[in-house]
Amino acid sequence: MEIAMTALAEKRISNILEDHSGKLELYYNEKFQGSYACSITGVFELKVSDNISESCETLNSPLGPVYIDPTKVTHLDDDPLIDYQEKMNTLQLKGRSGMIVDNLRVVNNQSKSLY
């Protein structure tokens, strides 16, 4: 599977990676506390980490490999896309069915936002 990125998203993520070393993981945070519907048990985050599990699968991206837990791939549509909305200063994860995450956080190993 591949994960596409718009040029703006690619630039935004590259800028973050200049200040924080590690590999990219599309991490499904099941402990996320938000205002989502009851049936949603978690939310994707883009984690910058050196602690990638050996069981992770690799998604090809314009920035190189993006890792994902194989049990969480089912939460993605085919051909996922990361976009960047300049006005809102947010990354967004989209799929064929529409918006998956309207504010894709970029976090470190402790789930602290990196921007």
List keywords for this structure.
115 residues; mainly beta; Hypothetical Protein Aq_1857, Chain: A; 11% helix
What can you see in these coordinates?
By secondary structure, this protein is mostly beta strands. It has one domain (4-107): HesB-like domain (Hypothetical Protein Aq_1857, Chain: A), CATH 2.60.300.12. Helix content is 11%, strand content 34%. The protein has 1 helix and 9 strands. The protein has one helix at residues 7-19, and strands at residues 4-5, 23-29, 43-49, 57-59, 66-68, 81-85, 90-95, 98-101, 106-107. Strands 4-5-2-3-9 form a 5-stranded mixed beta sheet, covered by helices on one side. Strand 4 and strand 5 form a beta hairpin. The model has no long low-confidence stretch (mean pLDDT 91). Pfam families: Fe-S_biosyn. This is Iron-sulfur cluster biosynthesis family protein.
In brief, what are we looking at here?
With 115 residues, this protein is mainly beta.
Can you give the helix content as a percent range? Answer: 10-25%
How many separate helices?
A: 1
Q: What is the H/E order?
A: EHEEEEEEEE
Helix and strand content put the structural class at mainly beta
Q: Order of strands side by side in the largest beta sheet?
A: 4-5-2-3-9
- Computed CA radius of gyration, to the nearest angstrom: 13 Å
Span between termini: 27 Å
Task: Describe the global form.
Answer: globular
Strand content: 25-35%
Number of domains: 1
Mean pLDDT: 91
CATH superfamily: HesB-like domain
Describe the largest sheet: 5 strands, mixed
CATH topology: Hypothetical Protein Aq_1857, Chain: A
Protein name: Iron-sulfur cluster biosynthesis family protein
Domain Core: 1-107
Pfam families: Fe-S_biosyn
